[in-house]
């Protein structure tokens, strides 16, 4: 039973770590995108 | 211009020039060799056991070689970068493959001398000995590992030459790339001297790895060097 | 904000919230929603519905993250190599290829970091240690460092074309390097359990729900990769444009200073 909780910590921790890292990366990309986007008018951006 | 004999002739000229410059500066002999030797001494401090030292001696020799490669590569391009000589030879239309081969040849010769010195140091300091039947394997290992190290070193040295942050970028690029050389050369050397019950025949697959590595990076480097140092 | 003059203006024009958007579009929003939904499914199936494994017990749940992240990382590195190859050997030298290669490598490096961290936790439960010196782990660690080096080369500076050519060459050399590393480390030692999904001939049947959870993981991380790639490559496009503009401004300022005399280009103006 104790071993189970020990394992559960690692299992939940691994999911939390993944979501955290991936979320941080996504947030940074989007924020950087909007910061840069402020400096360039939309009609220059090829994707708009 | 690009015919093979000319390329080879220019490569030898470049190598001779590099070796002459290095000989006159005396930095390789007065600084790099002592650096490698002191590395061998401090390994003994860190490991602090004669038995362990004897067991891991082949690895330590190659580790010390690897550290020295980084220093020697920086040297090989510091000479060029100071007065823009690399740029000048490129602008003069010298085949980049010839520059690459020449510089790799010069580095390889320096490394070979350094490895001999380190092996002697290992014999003296770490109580190593090489049985006669391992001598051929050891020689072949030295040559092919040196070719591989020189091929990688000059390739990444040329890329980072003259860039800010080259002192840190060079090891970052080089060390993971030469990991196969460290593994292969260490195992082959262990086989050659019979460390931990290894026999000489164990060493030949590792020699194969080293040879493939040297050829792959030699060819890849010669092709990639031009675009890498190009403006 | 319809005037194109502002694009050529020396200073960045004042931000106009309504007409200056970031890297998001309708496509990324749809992808983003799909990513979040599939990640939710992954959590539900991976942590909830999927049964415990006979041998690995609950630790198998970690593999629903561990395996997809490394697969998608390999996909990312393959995209980097492909774009590098097309850039070097193709006729049209499009910087967009270089930016996709760079963005893809960046995302893949992040995914490898996740794989290694999560794998260490799996190893702690299953093997009792965080790390084992086996072939696949060691190769993955060296792959990680190799591509960190690739990303460092991208930041070396110089013109965009220089960066593109240099990093394309390094991107292809990495492809030469990784098999050599893998071969040497495999000769060295190997005790990682063999991939069971790809060679199912050893008689072990994977539970349907487990396979489905793994499948959900692959979908989720592939969608995430695509979403991140769109955002990052667009961000890199803007970085390049602003960089060029900064260079133009610096040149103009220098010319004005020198009283119209042409001045040498300031070198290494990249971020």
**Average pLDDT number of chain B:** 87
Query: Mind telling me the C-alpha Rg of chain B?
Result: 18 Å
Helix content of chain B: over 70%
The first-to-last residue Cα distance of chain B is 21 Å
The string of secondary-structure elements of chain B, in order, is HHHHHHHHH
Unreliable segments of 5+ consecutive residues of chain C: 1-13, 262-271
Give the number of helices of chain C.
7
Weakly predicted, low-confidence segments of chain B: none
Percent of residues in beta strands of chain B: under 5%
Helix content of chain C: 55-70%
Span between termini of chain C: 28 Å
**Can you count the beta strands of chain C?**
0
Instruction: Count up the domains of chain C.
Output: 1
Computed CA radius of gyration of chain C, to the nearest angstrom: 23 Å
- Secondary-structure element pattern of chain C, one letter each: HHHHHHH
Number of helical segments with 4 or more residues of chain B: 9
Oligomer: heterotrimer
User: How many strands, what sense, and barrel or not for the largest sheet of chain B?
Assistant: none
Shape of chain B: globular
Shape of chain C: globular
Detailed description of the structure:
The complex is a heterotrimer of chains A (48), B (231) and C (271). Chain A is 75% helix and 0% strand. The N and C termini of chain A lie far apart (56 Å). Chain B has 231 residues and is mainly alpha-helical. The longest helix of chain B is centred in the first third of the chain and has 33 residues. Chain B has nine helices and no strands. The model of chain B has no long low-confidence stretch (mean pLDDT 87). Chain C is mostly helical. Chain C has one domain. The longest helix of chain C is centred in the last third of the chain and has 50 residues. Chain C is globular, with a radius of gyration of 23 Å. The interface between A and C is large, with 36 and 49 residues.
């Amino acid at each position: 039973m104790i071993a189970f909780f020990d394992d559960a910590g690692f299992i939940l921790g691994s999911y939390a770590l993944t979501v955290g890292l991936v979320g941080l990366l996504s947030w940074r990309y989007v924020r950087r995108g909007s910061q840069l986007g402020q400096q360039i008018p939309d009609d220059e951006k090829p994707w708009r | 211009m690009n015919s093979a004999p000319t390329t080879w002739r220019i490569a030898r000229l470049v190598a001779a020039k590099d070796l002459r410059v290095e000989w006159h500066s005396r930095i390789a002999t007065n600084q790099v060799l002592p650096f490698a030797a002191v590395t061998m001494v401090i390994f003994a401090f860190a490991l602090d056991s004669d038995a362990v030292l004897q067991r891991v001696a082949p690895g330590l020799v190659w580790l010390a070689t690897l550290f020295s490669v980084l220093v020697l590569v920086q040297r090989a391009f510091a000479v060029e970068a100071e007065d823009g000589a690399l740029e000048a030879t490129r602008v003069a239309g010298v085949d980049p493959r010839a520059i690459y081969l020449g510089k790799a040849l010069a580095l390889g010769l320096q490394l070979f001398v350094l490895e001999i010195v380190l092996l002697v140091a290992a014999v003296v300091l770490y109580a190593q000995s090489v049985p006669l039947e391992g001598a051929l394997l050891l020689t072949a290992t030295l040559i092919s590992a040196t070719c591989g190290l020189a091929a990688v070193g000059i390739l990444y040295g040329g890329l980072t030459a003259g860039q800010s942050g080259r002192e840190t970028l060079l090891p970052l690029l080089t060390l993971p790339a030469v990991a196969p050389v460290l593994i292969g050369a260490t195992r082959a050397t262990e086989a050659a001297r019979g460390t931990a019950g290894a026999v000489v025949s164990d060493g030949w697959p590792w020699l194969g790895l080293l040879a493939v590595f040297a050829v792959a990076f030699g060819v890849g480097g010669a092709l990639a060097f031009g675009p890498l140092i190009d403006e | 904000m319809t005037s194109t003059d502002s694009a050529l203006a020396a200073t960045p024009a004042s931000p106009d919230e309504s007409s200056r958007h970031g890297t998001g579009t309708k496509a990324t929003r749809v992808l983003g929603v799909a990513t979040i939904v599939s990640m939710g499914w992954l959590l539900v199936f991976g942590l909830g519905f999927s049964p415990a494994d006979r041998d690995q017990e609950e630790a198998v749940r970690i593999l629903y993250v561990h395996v997809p992240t490394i697969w998608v990382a390999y996909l990312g590195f393959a995209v980097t190599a492909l774009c590098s190859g097309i850039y070097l050997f193709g006729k049209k030298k499009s910087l967009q290829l270089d930016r996709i290669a760079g963005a893809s490598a960046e995302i893949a490096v992040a995914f490898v970091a996740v794989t290694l961290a999560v794998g260490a936790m799996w190893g702690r439960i299953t093997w009792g240690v965080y790390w084992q010196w086996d072939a696949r782990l060691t190769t993955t660690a060296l792959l990680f460092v190799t591509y960190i080096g690739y990303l460092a080369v991208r930041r070396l500076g110089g013109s965009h074309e220089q960066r593109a050519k240099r990093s394309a060459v390094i991107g292809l050399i990495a492809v030469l390097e990784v098999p050599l590393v893998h071969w040497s480390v495999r000769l060295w030692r190997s005790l990682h359990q063999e991939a069971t999904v790809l060679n199912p001939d050893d008689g072990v049947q994977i539970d349907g729900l487990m396979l489905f959870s793994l499948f959900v993981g692959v979908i989720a991380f592939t969608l995430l990769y695509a979403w991140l790639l769109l955002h990052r490559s667009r961000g890199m496009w803007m970085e390049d444009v602003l960089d060029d503009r900064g260079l133009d401004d610096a040149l103009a300022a220098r010319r004005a200073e020198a009283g119209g005399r042409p001045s040498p280009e300031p070198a290494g103006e990249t971020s």
